Amino acid sequence: MNKIFKTGVLAFITLITINACQSNATQNGLGGTISADEFEQKINTVENPQIADVRTPEEYNEGFINGAININYNSNTFETDISKLDKVKPVFVYCLSGGRSSNAISKMIELGFKEIYELKGGMRAWHNANKNVTTQSNTPEAKSTGMTMNEYNELLKTNKLVLVDFNAVWCAPCKVMNPILDELTTEFKDKLEVIKIDVDENKQVADGLQIENLPTFLLYKNGSIVWNGEGLTEKITIADAIKKN
């Protein structure tokens, strides 16, 4: 079995067995996955809405939707913590981009929750829609940290093609894509530079480019995007885009 075929099989199996870091959790009769505008409108129609931010405490402390409580999906006590919410009343769930909230909702359905709404695209979409964000001290969210857009644009100033991989340490599909990107880096070393950007550590760039789903891939030529992709992507698809440019 050759290496390319093995990679394709691995990606296919992973696609079936894990959720991509995208919002895809529309639930039958349970609410569904809705846009930032719809999410905000729904919250405003409910008295004392139950809003669950299933990100890590560190992410939550950097800024959250007003009224949300932090119930970390990655915590060992997630099931116990989420079960403290009223299972009959609507619950509004979100994470950074949709992966963890989708998984959380699947667990909540098992636990008997009746009406669940998921924020499509998570906080990435909320930011891109210019919605209000608060912090623990109820002050405006701190300025984004990490790389600036000017610094990002400087990375694109090269005669080579530049493939930018937007990822996060908690993103399972991102981890699957890592060896594929390493192979592409080796195979196209004279033509390609691969840059990996953690969206949690580089919020200004992620927000500026409206990155909502992870992983997201942007292929640049002379500073302009010539191809883009999201989620688990076959090696041959990316390689073809590189060859064409």
Fold and architecture overview:
The protein is α/β, with parallel strands linked by helices and 245 residues long. The protein folds into two domains: 19-128, 3-Layer(aba) Sandwich (Oxidized Rhodanese, domain 1), CATH 3.40.250.10; 149-244, Glutaredoxin. The protein contains ten helices and nine strands. The protein has a five-stranded parallel sheet with strand order 1-5-4-2-3, sandwiched between helices. Helix 5 links the parallel strand 4 (91-94) and strand 5 (116-119). Helix 1 runs antiparallel to helix 8. It is elongated, with a radius of gyration of 19 Å.
Structural class: alpha/beta
Number of folding domains?
2
Rg estimate, integer Å: 19 Å
Query: What's the order of the H and E elements?
Result: HEHEHEHEHEHHEHEHEEH
Name the beta content range: 15-25%
SS field, number of helical segments? 10
Residue stretches low in confidence (pLDDT < 50, at least 5 long) are 3-29, 138-144
Largest sheet: 5 strands, parallel
Q: Can you identify the CATH superfamily of the largest domain?
A: Rhodanese-like domain
List the helices and strands and how they pair.
Blueprint: H1 3-17, E1 31-34, H2 36-44, E2 50-53, H3 57-62, E3 69-70, H4 78-82, E4 91-94, H5 99-111, E5 116-119, H6 122-128, H7 149-155, E6 161-167, H8 172-187, E7 192-198, H9 203-208, E8 216-221, E9 224-230, H10 235-244
Parallel strand pairs: 1-5, 2-3, 2-4, 4-5, 6-7
Antiparallel strand pairs: 6-8, 8-9
Helix pairs in contact: 1-8
